[in-house]
Amino acid sequence: MTEHQSRKFTRRAIVLGSTATALAGCATTAQSPEQTAILAEPAPVAPLMYAALPTEQFPVPAVDISQIDPRFWRQDIDYETDEKTGTLIVDTPNKYLYHVHSGGRATRYGIGVGREGFAWAGRAVVAYKRKWPRWTPPDSMVARQPELRPYSVANGGMDPGLRNPLGARALYIHENGVDTLYRLHGTPQANSIGKAVSSGCIRLLNQDVIHLYDTVTDGSSIVVIPDPSVTPLLVGSA
């Protein structure tokens, strides 16, 4: 092989080698659509506020955050309102509950609200609150669902616990000293938050209702903003 031929062969080898390297790079970095989606949308990390609560009377499991949109996670936000500090504002259309603080701030919770036909709105007060409450469905509910008769008022209601529909805490809503039969209460069903699912009551994650219970006081005002898409039952609307 002549010196000229040797230099030509070497240049050809370099070109081919560079091409092979480039092709090898494409092969190792190419991703399937599924892999690309996984890389683009990493699973959210569960915040500590939704961890298990093993010291509760009935140990509360961690929230399955895959069942709830992160926008419904509890957070403190800027919130301007004419309502006084301590007021609870239920934004039914957007599925949020705000606990008003001073300085234009509020804690916002994601909620589940009443189904159409059971939705309600208006002004009332939080008369009192209970840890791990008993549940006694109203007679009207028992009439619709006779299987609930064992838990009726006459039969003493359902014992507290994780299966109890009121969850870990309940806040009891009265208007002019009269029980409205509506509650703010806990639920372990993360997939119900952000939806209209309950029979009128406002549900929060158990971890959230525990947090709310610890910060709200008896006698606090509650304002429920109606959803314009349904005809609400007005409570204390005067």
From TrEMBL:
- UniProt KW keywords: Cell shape, Cell wall biogenesis/degradation, Glycosyltransferase, Hydrolase, Peptidoglycan synthesis, Plasmid, Signal, Transferase
Residues spanning the signal sequence: 1-24
Please list the residues that make up the active site: H185 (proton donor/acceptor), C201 (nucleophile)
Provide a GO CC annotation, any one: extracellular region
Molecular function as annotated in GO: glycosyltransferase activity; peptidoglycan L,D-transpeptidase activity
The UniProt entry, under Gene3D superfamilies, shows: L,D-transpeptidase catalytic domain-like
Q: Which residues form the L,D-TPase catalytic domain?
A: 86-225
Q: SUPFAM superfamilies attached here? A: L,D-transpeptidase catalytic domain-like (SSF141523)
Which pathway is this protein assigned to? Cell wall biogenesis; peptidoglycan biosynthesis
- A single GO BP: cell wall organization
The family classification in the record reads: Belongs to the YkuD family.
Question: Which named protein is this?
Answer: L,D-transpeptidase
